[in-house]
Amino acid sequence: VNQLAGETHHNPNKAGEFGYDSAVSPPQGVTHTPPSPATVGSTLSEPNASGKTGHGPVPGHNATIDTLDRVRVDSTGRVLTTNQGVPVGDNQNSLKAGLRGPTLLEDFILREKITHFDHERIPERIVHARGSGAHGFFEAYGPLTDLTRASLFAEAGKVTPVFVRFSTVAGERGSVDTARDVRGFAVKFYTDEGNWDLVGNNIPVFFIQDAMKFPDLVHAVKPEPHNGIPQAASAHDTFWDFVSLMPESTHMLLWAMSDRAIPRSYRMMQGFGVHSYRLVNAKGESQFVKFHWKPKQGTHSLVWDEAVKIMGADPDFHRRDLWDAIEAGEYPEWELGLQVFTEEQADKFSFDILDSTKLIPEELIPVTPVGRLVLNRNPDNFFAETEQVAFCTAHVVPGIDFSNDPLLAGRIHSYVDTQISRLGGPNFHEIPINSPIAPVHNNQRDGLHRQAIARGRVAYEPNSLGGGCPFQAGVKGFVSFPQPIKDDKVRGKPEKFAEHYNQATLFYNSQTEVEKAHIAAAFRFELSKVTVPAIRQRMVASLVHVSAELAAKVAEGLGIEVPPGLPRALDNPPKPEVKVSPALSLTALPGEVGIRSRQVGIVVANGVDGASVAAVEKALRAEGAVPRLVSIRLGQVTAVKGETFDVHATLENHPSVLFDALVLPCGQDAIDTLLTNGHTLEYIKDQYRHCKPILALGLSEQLLAKAGIPDTLPDGQPDEALIKAQPSKVASVLPAFIAQLSAHRYTPRDSDPPRV
Ligand code: HDE
To answer: pLDDT band for position 587 (50/70/90)?
Structure first.
């Protein structure tokens, strides 16, 4: 039973993992939800394809799963075979000429096994190598037919299966989850008119304006080529050398230095399509659109010291969090929102909507919710699904089209191209996780690893021998929006692209004081890792144009004077329409309040007051949180009245940075034991430093004192997330503790440097 799942949770959309019969009958003691009638293109409330009325809206079944069924393998109860299906008699010993003699070349069983093993790895993605994926579905809120003919938006309740992959960008496949980095947010919609891939990030803008610069950017941020250092980090010379010479990166740098780049969870971050795309309706009318994903779980982040410590404590922090939540039936959910705007509106903006270093403030174009995305099933096999999934911005469907964003243009080429070497040929669309649910018929043939067996002698068009099939769909097929173009062929950029700082300033000015402090600290940290002083200097000279306050703070942190601003590309930059945009601050998006799936550590030891521990555990479980008892070693602890508690984790194997909140127990013997254990004090210090709620019962005040935890905030005000109570009064403080946990972090406690 997985940790988050506790004893009671079970993901009804995934039959038991173990046992040959698991595909048909659930493991004992759990309820199995029958597959819902929702097939691709169906609505949740409609009868299913077979005409039978369904079981009602069970938002669980994924049509992708049906198509993947044909390739699923369950070896339970089966005999071991070679890849040719020949039963293997001995899987322990190679074939030898005598027990001590040479191994024979003839041993095809050994050779097949080793040969396959030798080729198990494929090239990792050049960027976004480390990621985690899940299956789910998208459900449209209502018809968007006036805007787009894309079939997934055709009617209210229409359900389209999806596969989503989240990722970091710079780190290699085996790197850590909580690096400071942009996160990928790639969604493959298996629509009934073909696959649409919305390959986005958790930040709405990008570092560069033109695809021409992408290889340079990536070469700059990846580990330096001479020594392969550093892994999964932008805090090094080549990255800051490049971006400090590219003022267009400044806006994105502000986002990347904000807490957005260290999310608490993949489940708790926004997603953005970044570029302007087009929606095209059945009449051929088109408007521009920007895509937004907003998490129902709220948008929450780590703090840097916490992120660094989690890298060591659990490098798979985000992967595990996503996996556990889905296994436990805590399906993460996002709302898709659209910013729709016309060419005429776009022309009037002070910025260019083809420039991916700019966003459209929500004050100018509001975000309209149009549907929800739910992830409800973990992959069966990481390699087959998460590693082999191939997202391509070129994968669009009728009703979705491109803008002329020059960054997007390069992407339309790059993603298909990269899969050809990564996945070994042009037939990567036939790999089960990539193959559309919509049928595929064309005259493309052959190539490495071809799976389809195309029948007949016709592989060309026009033909008469095949009755002209497959025939063109005409206007029912994908028709590119006929945007008029009349211009010179040039290498260059439109003038508005040359304004680099307005939106960086907008972003900075829209942050809370604590968020601003974290941005300054992140610049200080990253630039302090740069060894060439001139690069640090140049970067601060760029920040001068963003905010004098920010430049001063960073300069102070680096021990330099604020330099004069870099020369600007434009003498008279256009005036921005919006000065402050609350939606750009993380705190603007609290999400649904609640503590579901939040991890709470309850520290225990022999002699603990058992009644209050049990009460806290029960109350947290009732709210959907995941309380875990932590002690010096595994096994059981015996409470003061003789009750016993199972210990779930140890102070050593599960550092407190992995918890969202901490409970310290009462009971003199327990406190005496914990006081002598340095791990306990680190536990408390980290929770305090990272502004997480602490519930300290009775005598545990002694632990707080030994850890040096201040009673009040620096200004003498009470610390509302440091909640103290006698064990008998625990019920009266639990609501306050739960409220603090739901607020995620108690920022009034934030200080730089930390007080303890
Ligand atoms: Fe990517 N990007 N990118 N990118 N990108 C890749 O494709 C590329 C950009 C993004 O989970 C690669 O399959 C170019 C912006 C995500 O599998 C590659 C340019 C955004 C993922 C590639 C960009 C992204 C990728 C590497 C500038 C946010 C991971 C492996 C012109 C809107 C998808 C692969 C997954 C992956 C190229 C810029 C998002 C090399 C040339 C902007 C989420 O094709």
So the answer is: confident
**Pseudo-torsion of CA 300, 303, 304, 306, nearest 10°?**
-110
372-408 pLDDT per residue, tens: 999 999 999 999 999 999 999 999 999 999 999 999 9
Distance 178 CA to ligand 1 centre (A): 19
Choosing from 62, 201, 202, 502, the catalytic residue is: 201
Catalytic residue flag (residue 128)? yes
DSSP conformational letter for 27: P
Q: What is the whole-number distance in angstroms between the Cα of residue 127 and the centre of ligand 1?
A: 7
Q: Are residues 313 and 199 in the same domain?
A: yes
Q: Which of 9, 10, 61, 128 is catalytic?
A: 128
If you measure from the C-alpha of residue 486 to the centroid of ligand 1, how many angstroms do you get, rounded to a whole number? 30
Tell me which of 122, 124, 125, 274 to substitute to probe ligand 1's pocket, judged by most ligand atoms within 8 Å of the beta carbon. 125
Distance CA(691)–CA(745), nearest Å, equals: 5
Domain count, the chain: 4
Do 276 and 393 reside in the same domain of the chain? yes
CATH number at residue 510: 1.20.1370.20
Kind plus residue range of the DSSP H or E element containing 116 = helix 108-118
Residues within the annotated binding site for heme?
125, 165, 214, 411, 415, 422
Whether ligand 1 lies within 6 angstroms of the CB of 260 is answered as no
Nearest ligand 1 atom, CA 127: 26
- C-alpha 380 to ligand 1 mean position (Å): 25
> In terms of domains, do 338 and 290 share one?
yes
Contacts of 520 (CB under 8 A, 6+ apart): 550, 553, 554, 557
Q: Is 201 a catalytic residue?
A: yes
pLDDT digit string, tens, across residues 117-134:
999 999 999 999 999 999
The dihedral sign for the CA sequence 580, 581, 586, 590: positive
Q: What mean pLDDT do residues 651-657 have?
A: 97
Residue 50 lies in a domain: no
Cβ–ligand 1 distance for 349 under 6 Å, the answer no
CA dihedral 610, 612, 615, 619 (to 10 degrees): -130
For residue 312, give the CATH number of its domain.
2.40.180.10
Same domain, 275 and 418: yes
Q: What domain range is 177 assigned to?
A: 131-430
Residue 653 lies in a domain: yes
**Is the ipTM of this structure higher than 0.95?**
yes
Whether the per-residue pLDDT at 7 is higher than 90: the answer is no
The pLDDT of residue 571: 87
Asked if the model's pLDDT at residue 591 lies above 80, the reply is: no
Whether residues 184 and 306 share a domain: the answer is yes
**322 and 365 both lie in a single domain:** yes
Q: Does the pLDDT at position 37 exceed 70?
A: no
Contact 283, 609 (CB under 8 A): no
Atom number, ligand 1, closest to the C-alpha of residue 273: 32
Same domain (yes/no): 575, 632: no
Predicted pLDDT at 304:
98
